């Protein structure tokens, strides 16, 4: 496929999509495009709208306004054509059947199926094929769900928080399984609230916050943005706010009384420059921001830029 | 869809509790009720012996158990667990899930009918013409679709916690008041007046008409048809509501 074709053939297209529950705008005017072969992480804290976005993409929910297209058609048409394989976060499994039977069913239901034994092997669950589905650990169940999502030759694989319930080593082993899908040329879209997970697998990261797209870039770019830290200190006497605002790597600054609170993407450089102003900051504290706070920091920085 | 039907079936046949209640239990109940009954005594106003009368009741009861329990509880539980959502991400058409469930239950209901017949013929000397045996099997089996639809409706109405009590109340209410456990001629007059409008009553009446070599009464067929439309319509409406919400 040529680059021009890649640019024009969109795998997933959201156009000003909004989904409202009561007074909550779970997805708020979301516009995005996924391109063939990309591995994309949908990153955001809990309640950011990740699951709703994926549900809309898969046709499990319908947008209140805006349009969702998958391979240029409706989500349902894309699924019926066998172009989408998906794993839901809360995807329950049929109980009282074995893992092998369930995977066989998924293969039978797919228009372009792989052999069930291959699907089991690729998901790393050949060894538990005879086990009853209701006797699985959380991590094993996730792998079974993954097998259901990859039962056939789909062009897009959608995974909603695929490593939930896995410990660190299981998670890393699972990333390798996910990467294989991407290496075979598939477009992979997964939701996660671990920046680390997005960094390990994705070549593009979409940051979602309160149903809006906050940032869209490479994992490195997002890491730089979300790696913000908070610097706070007290100053005596007259505070030269204009000088403080010129400090490097500032996301935001808030001066209240004698206390200054700064969010910086490079706290070391900011603090260094602060001393360069010839002031004497007291009670200096530098603290990391959680992912959620980091996202808020990005939002505030974006809003500040716009105003 | 065939593969889902096959899997539903394998699962139903593996579930011992379900098999016991839908296949063994009706025959056991038949023996309990009709076991000591005189094989020549007639049930008032029917011209049928007690074992013959109870045979249809228990075969109907067994089929009802299989399709009602099989559908309602499973659907409610699988809706809650998210399996229904997962299936919507496959090529399976929306109705395929319900059809597979009903087909699975219907396959279990067939042996439950036949075993009651075999026990009645072997132990209580119930004798009918060959056409009557076939017609009975066919009508009880086909009639169970009415209750399969009811099971689907309950499955889409109830939550996972509430489904069992709701199913049980419906199931015992319909069985008892419809005269499946005891002839409704033993009911007080006012209760008989209510009972004759119940789908379970009409269901068993169809079978009895065959035993009496009579044409089924139009009223019974009409009652079953109306309930089928009601239950199936309700199930379809609840299904659509659930799909939009999920």
UniProtKB/TrEMBL annotation, chain A:
GO terms for cellular component: plasma membrane. Residues 12-235 form the ABC transporter domain. It is found in: Cell membrane. Coiled coil: none annotated. Keywords: Antibiotic resistance, ATP-binding, Nucleotide-binding, Transport. SUPFAM superfamilies: P-loop containing nucleoside triphosphate hydrolases (SSF52540). InterPro entries: AAA+_ATPase, ABC_transporter-like_ATP-bd, ABC_transporter-like_CS, ABC_transporter_ATP-binding, P-loop_NTPase. It comes from the Bacteria. It is a peripheral membrane protein. One of its GO terms (molecular function) is ATP hydrolysis activity. Pfam families: ABC_tran (PF00005). Its main location: membrane. One of its GO terms (biological process) is response to antibiotic. PANTHER family: ABC TRANSPORTER ATP-BINDING PROTEIN. This is ABC transporter ATP-binding protein. It comes from Streptomyces albiflavescens. The lineage of its organism: Bacteria, Bacillati, Actinomycetota, Actinomycetes, Kitasatosporales.
UniProtKB/TrEMBL annotation, chain B:
Signal peptide: none annotated. Pfam families: ABC2_membrane_3. The lineage of its organism: Bacteria, Bacillati, Actinomycetota, Actinomycetes, Kitasatosporales. The chain crosses the membrane at residues 18-37, 49-69, 98-121, 133-158, 165-182, 221-239. This is ABC transporter. Keywords: Antibiotic resistance, Membrane, Transmembrane, Transmembrane helix. GO terms for molecular function: ABC-type transporter activity. It is a multi-pass membrane protein. InterPro entries: ABC2_TM, ABC_2_transport, Nod_factor_ABC_transporter. Its main location: membrane. It is found in: Membrane. One of its GO terms (cellular component) is ATP-binding cassette (ABC) transporter complex. GO terms for biological process: response to antibiotic. Residues 50-236 form the ABC-2 type transporter transmembrane domain. It comes from the Bacteria.
């Amino acid at each position: 496929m040529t680059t021009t074709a890649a640019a024009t053939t969109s795998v997933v297209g959201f156009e000003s999509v909004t989904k409202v529950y009561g007074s909550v705008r779970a997805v708020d005017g979301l516009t995005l495009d996924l391109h063939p072969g990309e591995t994309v992480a949908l990153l955001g804290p809990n309640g950011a709208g990740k699951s709703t976005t994926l549900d809309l993409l898969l046709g499990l929910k319908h947008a209140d306004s805006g349009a969702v297209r998958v391979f240029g058609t409706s989500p349902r048409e894309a699924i019926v054509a066998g172009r989408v394989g998906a794993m839901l976060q809360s995807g329950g499994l049929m109980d009282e059947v074995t893992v092998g039977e369930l995977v066989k069913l998924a293969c039978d239901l797919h228009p372009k199926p792989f052999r069930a034994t291959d699907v089991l092997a690729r998901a790393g669950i050949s060894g538990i094929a005879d086990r009853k589905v209701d006797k699985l650990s959380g991590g094993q169940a996730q792998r079974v769900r993954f097998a259901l999502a990859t039962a056939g030759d789909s062009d897009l694989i959608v995974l909603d928080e695929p490593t939930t319930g896995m410990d660190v080593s299981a998670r890393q082993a699972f990333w390798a399984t996910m990467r294989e899908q991407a290496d075979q040329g598939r477009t992979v879209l997964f939701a996660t609230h671990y920046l680390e997970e997005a960094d390990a697998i994705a070549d593009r990261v979409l940051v979602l916050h309160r149903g809006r797209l906050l940032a869209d870039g490479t994992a490195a770019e997002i890491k730089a943005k979300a790696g913000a830290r908070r610097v706070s200190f007290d100053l005596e006497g007259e505070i030269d706010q204009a000088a403080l605002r010129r400090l490097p790597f500032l996301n935001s600054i808030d001066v209240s009384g004698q206390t200054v609170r700064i969010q910086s993407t490079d706290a070391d450089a900011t603090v260094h420059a602060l001393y360069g102003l010839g002031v004497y900051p007291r009670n200096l504290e530098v603290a990391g921001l959680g992912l959620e706070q980091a996202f808020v920091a990005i939002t505030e920085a974006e809003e500040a830029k716009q105003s | 869809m065939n593969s889902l039907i096959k899997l539903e079936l394998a699962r139903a046949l593996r579930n011992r509790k379900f098999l016991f209640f839908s296949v063994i239990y009706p025959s056991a109940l038949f023996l309990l009720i009709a076991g000591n009954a005189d094989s020549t005594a007639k049930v008032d106003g029917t011209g049928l012996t007690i074992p013959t009368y109870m045979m249809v009741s228990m075969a109907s009861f067994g089929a009802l158990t299989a399709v009602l329990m099989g559908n309602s509880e499973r659907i409610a539980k699988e809706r809650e667990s998210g399996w229904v959502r997962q299936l919507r991400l496959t090529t399976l058409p929306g109705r395929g899930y319900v059809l597979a469930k009903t087909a699975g239950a219907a396959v279990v209901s067939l042996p439950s009918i036949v075993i009651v017949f075999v026990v009645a013929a072997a132990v209580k000397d119930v004798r009918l013409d060959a056409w009557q045996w076939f017609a009975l099997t066919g009508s009880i089996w086909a009639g169970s679709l009415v209750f399969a639809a009811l099971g689907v409706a309950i499955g889409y109405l109830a939550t996972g916690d509430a489904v069992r009590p709701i199913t049980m109340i419906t199931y015992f209410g319909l069985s008892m008041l419809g005269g499946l456990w005891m002839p409704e001629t033993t009911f007080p007059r006012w209760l008989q007046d209510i009972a004759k409008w119940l789908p379970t009553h009409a269901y068993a009446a169809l079978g009895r008409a065959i035993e009496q070599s009579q044409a089924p009464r139009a009223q019974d067929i009409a009652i079953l048809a109306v309930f089928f439309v009601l239950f199936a319509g309700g199930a379809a409406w609840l299904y659509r509501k659930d799909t939009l919400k999920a």
